Amino acid sequence: MMKTVLKIWIGLMFATFGMEKASGQIEGENLFRLQLNAMQEAYKPNTIVHMHCEQKDFYVNLDTVVAVNADTYYIIFNDKPISCTISNECGSSFVNYDMTNLMMGGDLCLFHCYFVYCFDLWFDGPAIIKDIYFVDAEDNKKNENYGCPNDRIKIELEMHGDGSSTEVEIKTEGSSWRTISSFSYYDNQIYINFPSILNPYQQFTLRTRRHLHYDTDFVSLSTSTKTFYYLPPLQFPAGTDLVIDPPKCQEDNNTTIKIPYAGSTHYIITMEGNYDTRPGGPNNDKITKTDSYYVLSKQLATGSHTIKIEYPDGVPTPCYFQTSFTVPEIPSFTVSNFSYPDRLGDYEMTKHGGTGRVSFYVEGSYTPTILV
């Protein structure tokens, strides 16, 4: 008896153009791999399996099976096949196999002259970029090909196969591809934060990079045809920054916000309402102006708040400054360790925390209200 031999005839246009070899690896756009692992080691009569795969409008019979070992075989496609037909030489089994059923692998058994021959199928491919665009902090899609540092890049993916993690790479003009992120094969959408390696107005494109089924020899790529760039952020005058002074007393509980400016710069401020530093603008009367700051004093509830600052009409940049801060809960004023040791009018108390004027009442005193 002879050991089972697996022979697969492929109906596809298998081309090696579009691939490049780097560091011993074969890289190419939209490479797919179909691997068949024989699940039985027993010796059987010679078995011939015919596999006819359709790829777009091309049909050609090529014996392109590569044997990994005696019981494992794989095929590399240079594009996603649409469907496959698998049968054996005896004709006792004929299976029309839609490739969508192979996306996560599975088992396939063929009858051969009263014998059953089973395979473990693995179908693996790229993380295809279906769409890519900027989104704002609320995940709203932006139709422009430019974004602000506060925006994120959202990538919608069509995943094929399992097992291998995927890298996201970035390329700018005159540079090579660089990895900026990685993600699991379970993800069908991912977010990329502003890459710190970029400068304003520097154009870039992105691609995904994926090893096919843990194989270090074959790498499948999906490159976006879109180019993007970032605009510069809103920046305060050099050496200055936003100042937020929270309240310190219960009765004087306004939060004071100081926004630095220079020259004739104006802002629109959004924080539980809109404030415009331009004369006649909304709530302009709530803002005071010093030589270097716009000052907004506002009573805010305890907890987290967000302030957004942008230029009117997006000039010189539509990008905004945004930050969050917390208004603490102000504890009640308490006096501890109060004593009247000499009864001659000297009172003593222990002070905690900050400084300030204290008014208190002394029962039975000729001056019952005392201000310290």
Q: Cα distance, first to last residue?
A: 109 Å
Helix content: under 10%
Which sheet architecture does the biggest sheet show?
A: 6 strands, mixed
The total beta strand count reads 34
* Percent in strands: over 45%
Low-confidence stretches: 1-22, 41-45, 56-68
Shape: elongated
Give me the side-by-side strand order of the main sheet: 2-3-21-20-17-18
Overall residue-averaged pLDDT value: 75
Q: How many H/I helices?
A: 0
Offer a concise description of the structure:
By secondary structure, the protein is an all-beta fold. The protein is built from no helices and 34 strands.
Structural features, described:
The structure is a single chain. 0% of the residues lie in helices and 46% in strands. The protein is mostly beta strands and 372 residues long. It has a six-stranded mixed beta sheet with strand order 2-3-21-20-17-18, with no helix packed on it. The radius of gyration is 35 Å and the shape is elongated. The N terminus is likely disordered.
Please specify the SSE layout and strand pairing:
Elements: E1 10-11, E2 19-22, E3 25-29, E4 32-38, E5 49-54, E6 61-62, E7 66-69, E8 72-77, E9 83-88, E10 94-98, E11 106-112, E12 115-124, E13 128-135, E14 141-142, E15 146-147, E16 152-158, E17 166-172, E18 178-183, E19 189-192, E20 204-211, E21 218-223, E22 229-230, E23 243-245, E24 254-260, E25 268-270, E26 274-276, E27 287-289, E28 293-299, E29 303-310, E30 321-327, E31 336-339, E32 348-350, E33 359-361, E34 369-371
Parallel strand pairs: 3-21, 15-22
Antiparallel strand pairs: 1-6, 2-3, 4-8, 4-12, 5-9, 7-8, 9-10, 11-12, 13-14, 13-16, 16-19, 17-18, 17-20, 20-21, 23-24, 24-28, 25-26, 25-29, 27-28, 29-30, 31-32, 33-34
